Each structure stands twice: as C-alpha cells, then as structure tokens.
C-alpha cells in the first residue's frame, strides 16, 4: 500500500503515530475528531498524516460520531470518530449505542487520562470502557503501547466482520506519547471470536428451496442484514427467479427498488397496509437479515401467524429470539442467497397470491390530502423524491413523523442511500450523518429530511457543513411540534399537550389551547431557522405556499453550499397507517 | 429448570464485569457464578448456574458466545459431571456447649474444623449443593454467625465407565434424607 510508507522509515514510533498509521493502513480516508487535553498527541499526529487522512472537526462529539456513522452507512466501510476523555467520551455514548442497535461498523477512539491517574477521579476522567461495555461489540483500554498494533488490527476486524458493530478504543495520554519498536505483523489474539463467517449448509438451502416451491402465498421480509452483507444483488436475483413479493424493514429500504412492481415497501408499525396484510396472510415468510423487532411485528404472537418461517441471519442469537423459525439458518445472508439462487424454482402456484398483493397495493396506497391549500410533509417529501430521481441522492433523517414519511414517500432504489437511526431512534441523527455521507460522496446530493425537533438536537453541525465545505441540504419540515408525540397524544391521550410544543411557553399552543382545527398553522414561528442558517454561513429560505414548493426545492438543490429549506407545515397530520404498539395488523389504523 | 454452564473466557481485565453486566441487562436469572484460573494462564473458567427454560438457556448461551472474550460455552447439565461448592461457616460453639456434637456432624459430612475461637468454630465443607445446603440446615439450630460460599464449579467426567466411589455424593444422599 502506497499509503503505508510514511512513518515506516523509523521503526520506533509513538503510540499516537502507531494509532494514526494504523488508521491509514486500514484504509480510513476521513475521520471526525474533536480535540481535548487527553487526545492532543493523537491530533498532533493527525496533522502529520493529513496527506492520507482528512480530519473533520465537528462542533459536538455526538455530531462527529453520527458523521462517522453516515460515512460508514453510505460506504460500508468502518466510520472513525475521536474524542477526548471525560465529557468528550461520554458525548459519544448515544451514537455508539445507536451503532450497536443498527449494526454499524464504528471505531470510536477516546483519549483517557494517563494510566497512573486512572481511578483517581482525575480531571476529565470517566471510566468510558465501563460505560460502553454493554453498547459496544467490543472495547479496549490500551495500557501498553506495544499492544497497539494488535489492538488496532483486532478492532477493525471485529467492527467489520460477522454482525458489524461499534468498537471503542480508550487511549491514555501516556500511551499516546510512549514509544516502542513496532511490529506490524503481530497476530490477532481472539480465541473467542469466530474467524470465518457462518455459512448455511446445503441441506438447509434445499429445505428453503422446497418450502418456496410449495408455497402458495410467500413473502420475502428483508432487512439491514442484506445491506451489511452486500447482498442486494442476490436478493434482487431471488425475486427475479421466483416472483415473490418483497417487503423491507426500515433498515432494509433500498435493498430492492421501492418503485418496482413486486415491492410491498416497508412493513411494521408505520409500514404499508399492503405489506402488513400480505405478511398476515402469507403461508411462507422468508426473513432475511432481520431480527423481528417489535416495531415490525407488533404483537409477536399474531405476526405471520399462519406462515412457515425461514429465518436467515448471521447472528445466532437473533434466531428464535423473538419468533420461532421453522427453518432457522445461521449464515451470512449473501452466501445463503447465492446458494439458494443456484437451485431455487418459482412457486408452482402463486398467480392468485401475486395478483392479490398487487390489488392490496392499489387499494391501500400511502396517501395524503392532496387538496390541502398548503404544504403537507408527505407532499414535500414526494416532490423531493421526484426531483432527485435521476441523481445520485442520499437521504438521512432525524426521528419522528418526518422519518416515517420519508420512509413511506421517498423512493429508494439502491442500498446505502437511506440512513436512519432505526433501532435506537436518536433524534439529531439527520444533519451530522448527512455530513458524513457528503464527506464520503462529495459529488452526490445529500439531503437531511428533518423535523424542527430533531434538527435542533445537532443544529450546531451547520457550522461544520459550512467550514468543512460539505454542501448538505436540509429539508426542514417545520411543524413547531414534536409531531410523533403529538400524534400519540391525539390518538391515546385525549390530545393533552405535554411539552410537545417547541415555541415559547406563553404561546397558546404550549397549553394545547391553540386552534386545533386541522391544518391551522401556528402563525408565529420559533426559532427563525433562516436567520440561524445564514448566521452559520449556509443558504436558507422559507416556503409556505404550495405553489412555491417545487421552485424552492430546485433552489435548494442548485445551491452550491449547505442549505436549509424551512418548510412551514401543519402539525395536525398523522403518520398512517399505524399499528399501535403491541397490537396486531387487525388493529391497524388506516384513517 | 436448572442448568450448569461452563464457559472458558480470556483472562483479561473486565471480562467478569462484561459478562455479569450482559446477564443483568438482559434480565437473566443467575443462581451462582464462580470464576477462577485454569491450567492455561491466558484463560479463566466461569461456571454459571442458570435458572430458566430451554428458551432462556439457549439465549443466555448465545449471548455469552457473542462476547468477544468468551472462548467457549458448554451446557454440561445434560452430561455426567461432578459439581462442587466450597463453604466456610462460622457457628456458635460455647465451651462446654455442643462442641462435640458439632464436631460429629462435621465428620459425618466430611468437613473440617479449620479454626477454633473462644466461642465459635469455623468449618470448611465442600460438595454438591444439596449436601452443603443440608449441612447449613443442621448447623442452623446452633447459631450460624457467618457464612461464605464459592458458588458452584463443575467438570464433566471422563467417558470411561470406571468411577471411583465418590464419598461426598454417597454421603449426600444420606445427609439429605
């Protein structure tokens, strides 16, 4: 590797240099790092390697970690974030937990107080490894500089193989400064870690093929595992060969084109009615790279009640965890699909079923009020989807109503183009992750579809977008409320507003005594997002009238730098369909 | 159902904390947990007694196997194994009181008196859980002052049919009658 030459002339290196050299050797091209007392030696080293490795300074450590996730989710390569000890490290915690739940390969490097000070409650000391044990795939506290080459090798290996996940490396300052003769060829020492990926056995694959052949009402249920194992092509081939309708989890969107005939779009709590009905009525559920999450299944006993279940996943602990599988297969899903595609035959008698699914799709489409004299969220998202259809586009989201509407109304055609904090559901994910995507794909259109609640959780990253020349676009669906909580208040709590209005407390909306007529806008808006965005050096505009929407979107897309389009939308819209938490598809709310 | 799991783990800092944290956060019910070195200085052996049905057991096992520093997990409940629990127990024994009675019981249970104080004695006893429990019951009337147990450790027997008589287990059947 050409990149590896720097620093190799001297065999004796500091811990900081070993770490950074290791990053370069593992193909890391960009990392997000916020310095502090205990991580300064590593930052000094990063400047020496700046030719090989771009360091982006976020404005909050959490922003950096989500940017690293954005980089990782959109490329498949591990994302790297660095923070100092104490508060720097604890600010990473949410994003690390997020990466764990969504199986994202993330390397988090934290500074730590010098080894002699560990355990003394020193300034900016936290036992970050203790904090992170349950939310990482693995963790290291480096106590000897000689261990570092091995630890770096292990960390990248663990983060990226099997079921991917976050690994934290805690680097005491004295270890960063300490020197040693480097042995780069040191072997890994992981006796408890599976070296080879688990592979389906041939008889298991034959069982699946037989089940498919005899199925009358099969459905494929595909998730994030397809993306992790880069098996989207194999999955598409399976659908081509068999003609089986396919639904995707929120993590799986993009593995199959959302605008294709056999796509049933997303399933689950806010999934399409047609996907949920199809899963309810199917006699064979082919679950690929999924974990039967409660947001997918609702009441798990009634989920796909009459179906034979094939479950293929790389993580043995997911199989039979929430739902018992009739054909459980612990395997890399790409391998399993390759083997399956070699022998699979289309179901013998499925014509009526496919026709039924298509009819469901026509009967219960995602829909919204087209006649409304203003902009509703769904309309804005659909318009953006149409405008960007023929461009290389990545979409990130925060968490809440706008996230679900984006999942419903934006048509994703390729894996890794849709980034959502799906398992942990972290508000504030959208802007920083978009930043990471843009760093990885400088020429792509990267759009954060956000809500005004989520956006403000990491709004400071507008500064990073401006200063680091990352021309991220923000489609801000501004309804002045925490919309998803408002929706639950409306549905289950008699519309009592409990701290879900984001303006001043003396405003009538704060107590819920405002005009609750559907589609009545909140007239006074807070804060002034256009002014904020401009203050950060970004382009910005507000749009309120329906007729102005497309023009405003085009202006945003054409703008050379980062841009915030503040779209004034009503707060009375609900995300539908909806299967209330813990209920079954038969209790789905359609209107 | 009670299951004995035997896990080989890397002997690195934080393993115990990692494992106990995982078990606690997933809400598994652990009856006992013993850790100690093995013949290989790089590995430690953990013995768990888990209470739960087959579903719980298989989840505990898979979650344990997912921890990077856990090298191997075996459910030895279904196999033929030897299980031991070591206990130290301090019981009230005033001079002129029931000292000789206590000593007799200790002998019957194949325990040892390891310390004698002015008003109490310390007893060491090992064996299967049921035997240790039975001994505790016998001592209770005398007044147990302090008690400490290691938790269970277990090892699978060789497949050979030859079994030297295990006095501890024979005794246990008598003692728990």
Number of domains of chain B: 2
For this structure, the CATH topology of the largest domain in chain B is: Alpha-Beta Plaits
What can be said about the biggest beta sheet of chain A?
6 strands, parallel
Tally of distinct domains of chain A: 3
- Count of strand segments of chain B: 9
Q: Are there runs of chain B of 5+ residues with pLDDT below 50, and where?
A: 166-177
Features:
heterodimer, A: 591 residues, alpha/beta, Rossmann fold, 3 domains, six-stranded parallel β-sheet, disordered N terminus, B: 177 residues, alpha+beta, Alpha-Beta Plaits, 2 domains, five-stranded antiparallel β-sheet, four-stranded antiparallel β-sheet, 9 strands, elongated, disordered C terminus
Question: Would you kindly provide a brief summary of this structure?
Answer:
The complex is a heterodimer of chains A (591) and B (177). Chain A is α/β, with parallel strands linked by helices and 591 residues long. Chain A contains 23 helices and 20 strands.
Give an overview in words.
The complex is a heterodimer of chains A (about 600) and B (about 180). With about 600 residues, chain A is an alpha/beta fold. Chain A folds into three domains: about 1-180, Thiamin diphosphate (ThDP)-binding fold, Pyr/PP domains (Rossmann fold, 3-Layer(aba) Sandwich), CATH 3.40.50; about 200-365, TPP-binding domain (Rossmann fold, 3-Layer(aba) Sandwich); about 375-570, 3-Layer(aba) Sandwich (Rossmann fold), CATH 3.40.50. Helices cover about 35% and strands about 15% of the residues of chain A. In chain A, the strands form four sheets. Chain A has a six-stranded parallel sheet with strand order 3-2-4-5-7-6, with helices on both faces. A six-stranded parallel sheet of chain A has the order 11-10-9-12-13-14, with helices on both faces. Chain A has a six-stranded parallel sheet with strand order 16-15-17-18-20-19, with helices on both faces. The longest helix of chain A has 15 residues, at about 60-75. Chain A is globular, with a radius of gyration of 25 Å. Chain A starts with 11 loop residues before the first strand and ends in a 23-residue tail after the last strand. The relative contact order of chain A is 0.10. By secondary structure, chain B is an alpha+beta fold. Chain B has two domains: about 1-75, ACT domain (Alpha-Beta Plaits, 2-Layer Sandwich), CATH 3.30.70; about 80-160 and about 165-175, ACT-like. Chain A, domain 2 (Alpha-Beta Plaits, 2-Layer Sandwich), CATH 3.30.70. Chain B has helices at about 15-25, 55-65, 100-110, 130-140, 165-175; strands at about 1-10, 30-35, 45-50, 70-75, 80-90, 110-115, 120-125, 145-150, 155. In chain B, strands 5, 6, 7, 8 and 9 form a five-stranded antiparallel sheet that branches. A four-stranded antiparallel sheet of chain B has the order 2-3-1-4. In chain B, a hairpin with a 3-residue loop joins β6 (about 110-115) and β7. In chain B, α4 (about 130-140) crosses α5 (about 165-175). Chain B starts with a strand and ends with a helix. The chains are: A alpha/beta (about 600), B alpha+beta (about 180). The interface of A and B includes residues 129, 137, 190, 191 and 320 of A.
